[in-house]
């Protein structure tokens, strides 16, 4: 697995951070989809920086094993777990209650969990799975965690970070048909959800302007994870080995979210997209379509049953 040239000075500085001077000590960071791939690498990096890390995923056993590894690798014992299936609105709400019970303030919320299935299926709420997990879960979780994010904002600032993809630019803006009846194409379902991540970020940033809660998205690059495990080109073990020689390691891709979560320079920066070098990413033309993002917001509020107006 490779990283590539041009690592930012900030990333290099992060790697030099010592246990004596951890920049995120006292900060509570929640990472979704944290039991593997980019989420686990992000949780490990944030724990190394001294944060109190909450790892969320749906499989209790896998999550517990990942938590132990993150705590061991980072040398930070302040790592806990929350089990929730993000394909269920009820689970998302219950997870928010559990998190708020243990952490009165939340400083960083990384919406990382994602799926890229090859077959159409519906969430337990009857919504196309990719859209439900990749977009509606972050939308609802952000809303449900708003009281603790507000307390995080009052305690040095809070950051909401959503992991999108360069493929957002292939996302079609057709927001209707959330049950994906009729023809369903995996690539379009995924790219639409990643476009929704960017539209959500820009709208959230505008709604939260001046509150001390920032909203940014990140593009990790092309990373060797299990995201494409159902796709023919990633199924055979030998092909996976081939890909892992070409694609980024999860630790390299995770730098994008870690940068957005921790860079002092981003204290008041909101409504942007960053890559793993901390560079601003120019997202697609349609991601800047204000009418589109408002429509997505309205539709998401209706589907999840929340309002999420400016706090
Ligand atoms: N890999 C890339 O090249 C790439 C590029 C751009 C963006 N991204 C984005 O990066 C994020 C992380 O993906 P990854 O590449 O690290 O993939 P991954 O290895 O498949 O990890 C995805 C994570 O999301 C969790 N998840 C999936 N469905 C869930 C649900 N219903 N409830 C709770 N957790 C759920 C998975 O849990 P399980 O283990 O239980 O499935 C896993 O922890 C995604 O948003 C993806 O779109 C990835």
How would you summarize the topology of this molecule?
Elements: H1 9-16, E1 28-32, H2 37-48, E2 52-57, H3 60-74, E3 79-83, H4 89-102, E4 108-111, H5 129-144, H6 146-154, E5 158-163, H7 186-207, E6 213-218, H8 237-246, H9 250-253, H10 255-262, E7 273-274, H11 290-304
Parallel strand pairs: 1-2, 1-4, 2-3, 4-5, 5-6, 6-7
Bound molecules: NADP nicotinamide-adenine-dinucleotide phosphate.
NADP nicotinamide-adenine-dinucleotide phosphate is lined by residues 33, 35-39, 57-59, 62, 85-87, 112-115, 133, 163, 165, 220, 222-223, 225-227.
Give a concise summary:
The termini are far apart. The protein is α/β, with parallel strands linked by helices. The chain has eleven helices and seven strands.
Explained architecture:
There is one protein chain. The longest helix is centred in the middle third of the chain and has 22 residues. Helix 2 links the parallel strand 1 and strand 2. Helix 5 packs parallel to helix 7 and helix 7 crosses helix 11. The radius of gyration is 18 Å and the shape is globular. It is 43% helix and 11% strand. With 311 residues, the chain is of the alpha/beta class. Strands 3-2-1-4-5-6-7 form a 7-stranded parallel β-sheet, sandwiched between helices. The protein contains 11 helices and 7 strands. The protein has one domain: NAD(P)-binding Rossmann-like Domain (Rossmann fold), CATH 3.40.50.720. The site of NADP nicotinamide-adenine-dinucleotide phosphate (NAP) has 26 residues, from helix 2.
Hetero compounds = NADP nicotinamide-adenine-dinucleotide phosphate
The tally of beta strands, per DSSP, is 7
Biggest sheet, open or closed, and with what strands and sense? 7 strands, parallel
At CATH level 3, the topology is Rossmann fold
CATH class: Alpha Beta
Q: Write down the domain tally.
A: 1
Class by helix and strand content? Answer: alpha/beta
Average of pLDDT: 91
- The residue fraction in helices comes out at 40-55%
CATH architecture designation? 3-Layer(aba) Sandwich
Specify the overall morphology: globular
Strand order of the largest sheet: 3-2-1-4-5-6-7
Please tally the helical runs, counting DSSP H or I stretches of 4 or more residues. Answer: 11
Uncertain segments: none
For the record, give the distance between the C-alpha atoms at the N and C termini, rounded to a whole number. 43 Å
Element order: H for helix, E for strand: HEHEHEHEHHEHEHHHEH
